[in-house]
UniProtKB/TrEMBL annotation:
Span list, region Disordered: 94-117
Coiled coil: none
Positions with biased composition (Low complexity): 102-117
Alphabetical list of InterPro entries matching this protein: MlaB-like_STAS, STAS_dom_sf
Residue ranges of domain MlaB-like STAS in the record: 9-89
Taxonomic lineage of the native organism: Bacteria, Bacillati, Actinomycetota, Actinomycetes, Kitasatosporales
Name of this chain's protein: MlaB-like STAS domain-containing protein
Pfam families reported for this sequence: STAS_2
Length: 117
């Protein structure tokens, strides 16, 4: 993850086709205001994945690229990631700890006499 704090755009669901231009304008404005080059799109509230969500994300990425930036997805569901992969769209996502992996900076305690792994 970059050391720079990126602007965050929360995308509420359900997605309507009429809302797409407004969100594109918001991405453009955030990229111009922050000059960080990345807008983090919180997609956790989009709801069930569908073509409307795919179209929105594709248009946001296109808008960001036209402005010299990109978008990064926060909190995508496995279903949304699968749907995006199915239609051939790849997005950068914020790193989420893998299942059973402790968050960064957490060390497990070692008991005396434990065998080395």
């Amino acid at each position: 993850m970059d050391a720079v704090t990126h602007a965050v755009l929360v995308l509420p669901g359900p997605v309507s086709k009429e809302a797409v231009p407004r969100f594109c304008d918001e991405v453009r404005a955030l990229l111009e205001a922050t000059r960080a080059g990345v807008v983090v799109c919180d997609v956790g509230g989009l709801g069930p994945p569908g073509l409307a969500a795919v179209e929105l994300l594709a248009r946001l990425q296109l808008t960001a690229r036209r402005c010299g930036g990109r978008i990064r997805l926060r909190d995508p569901t496995p279903g949304l990631l699968s749907f995006l992969d199915l239609v051939g769209l790849r997005f950068e996502t914020e790193r989420q700890p893998e299942q059973r992996e402790p968050p960064g900076g957490v060390e497990e305690a070692v008991e005396p006499g434990d065998a080395a792994v």
